[in-house]
Amino acid sequence: MTNFTVGYFTMTEKEAIEYANSNLDFFQPGANLTCKEIGDGNLNYVFRIVDQQTGQSLIIKQAGPVARISDEFKVSPDRNRIESEILRLQGELAPGFVPEVYHYDPVMNCCAMEDLSDFEILRTAFSAHKTFPNLAEHLSTFLVKTLLQTSDLVLGHKEKKELVKTFTNPELCEITEDLVYTEPFYDCPRNDVFLGTRSYVEKEIWNDPHLALETAKLKFDFLTNTQSLLHGDFHTGSIFVTEEETKIIDPEFAFYGPAGYDLGNVVANLIFAYVNGNSEIEDPEKRENYLGYLQSTIKKTIDLFKEKFVIDYKDKVTEKVASYDGFLEHYLNGILSDAAAVTGLELCRRVIGIAHVKDLTDITDPVRRAEAEIFCLKLGKSFILNRGNFQSGSDFTEAINNN
After folding, report:
1. Which residues contact 304 (CB under 8 A, 6 or more apart)?
2. Which residues partner with 239 through β-bridges?
3. N or C, fewer C-beta in 10 Å, the chain?
4. How many CB atoms lie within 10 A of CB 21?
């Protein structure tokens, strides 16, 4: 019998079954368990364990000492603690939008949580050009509930500063600082640029000093602005969906930063789905309908975020000076400006940097792929350089249409 108490090691599928039997009070004694490692992300090992007789199942997620994307990234397994704690907190702030956490183990750096196998990863669903009518409603609710209620607007300042300490996440923040804010905007050896796109990148991204300056400003705001507790990696690969429900997973990059970061990240990934559909759907009517759905979802996500933020602001804010005339507008405008900037950063870094998205890499025709990537880069530059001009959903969709 494996001893899971003496020190950390990376589990195999067989050991994950042993762990479930010995350390979790979830399955019946003697249950016939099977396990499959299903992790397809950049960092972790994800084991799905199923009782073959009852169908009961759970997920064990274990953090490794290095990123699966590259051994260059040494990452603290403490991210598993951060993920477990923030999932529990988000479950309180936005009930029903995150998986339930059953167990956290600081020795094995793993957690056991609800199995969402009845759900579909949103990026995968979008690759099949599926639509989800409630998505904007769900995303905007989750974002408002988690961002507003973890800010100085609502929390006592000492309580909020304690949370900042709890969710200090230097290793994973460093990955974001490098891969999002720094490396895509110069000729970094670690970048990975598609051949058909490279000449545009060299001319319009790496040789634009104005763009470089603006990304430097954004990086230092990211480093210093502890506005809200963020998910930190809020893309369509971190969202599980059915026709009726939406669940947010993988908040291991969680930290305190600019509130617009999560909103901008998900908007950029909706744009990636849009670009994929535009490139891959051959039937004109189907393509028009799908692109219209995504534009509507982008617009609704932003406009519903604004609407719900104002309602909850007036209901939940406790900070006296936040009640002064004009402060709400100032605060919300700042979030939307930051969201536009992050939309632009994400559009650029997923084309240029080491961590790509299947929305682009799955475009089979090389000419169409290059066109799609250059579309993202042009749009990304506009969002970064003109970020203060994006204050409504229609501002974002007009930029897409005019690009």
Report:
1. 136, 137, 140, 141
2. 248
3. N
4. 16
d(CA 369, CA 375): 10
| Cα–Cα distance measured from residue 392 to residue 395, given in angstroms and rounded to the nearest whole number | 5
Q: Is the pLDDT of residue 67 over 90?
A: no
pLDDT tens digits along 365-383? 999 999 999 999 999 999 9
User: Residues 39-50, buried b or exposed e (16+ Cβ, 10 A)?
Assistant: bebbbbbbbbbb
Whether residue 139 contacts residue 234, with contact meaning beta carbons closer than 8 Å, is answered with no
Measuring CA to CA, how many Å separate 348 from each of 179, 247, 402? 10, 26, 18
Yes or no: say if 374 and 200 are a contact pair by the CB < 8 Å rule.
Answer: yes
Residue 75 has pLDDT above 80, yes or no: no
Query: Which residues, 6+ apart, have CB-to-CB distance to 106 below 8 Å?
Result: 81
Q: Residue 67 corresponds to which amino acid?
A: A
pLDDT tens digits, 26-60? 999 989 999 999 876 556 889 999 999 999 999 99
Distance from C-alpha of 54 to C-alpha of 56, rounded to nearest angstrom: 5
Both structure tokens of 79: 């991210």
- CA-based Rg of the chain, rounded to a whole angstrom? 21
Query: Torsion angle, CA of 173/175/177/181, rounded to 10 degrees?
Result: -140
CB 151 within 8 A of CB 226: no
pLDDT, one tens digit per residue, over 285-303 is 999 999 999 999 999 999 9
Block residue for tokens 């939307």: 336
Q: What is the pTM of this model?
A: 0.92
Q: Looking at residue 65, what DSSP letter applies? A: S
What's 349's DSSP letter?
H
Beta bridge partners, 121, equal 240
Q: Which residues pair with 44 in a beta bridge?
A: 63
Mention every residue, 6+ apart, whose C-beta is less than 8 A from residue 10. Answer: 45, 62, 64
Question: Cβ neighbours of residue 82 under 8 Å, at least 6 residues apart?
Answer: 167, 169, 251, 252, 254
Domain locations in the chain?
13-114, 120-402
Q: What is 13-114's CATH number?
A: 3.30.200.20
C-alpha–C-alpha distance, residues 106 and 121, integer Å = 28
State in words which class domain 120-402 has.
Answer: alpha beta
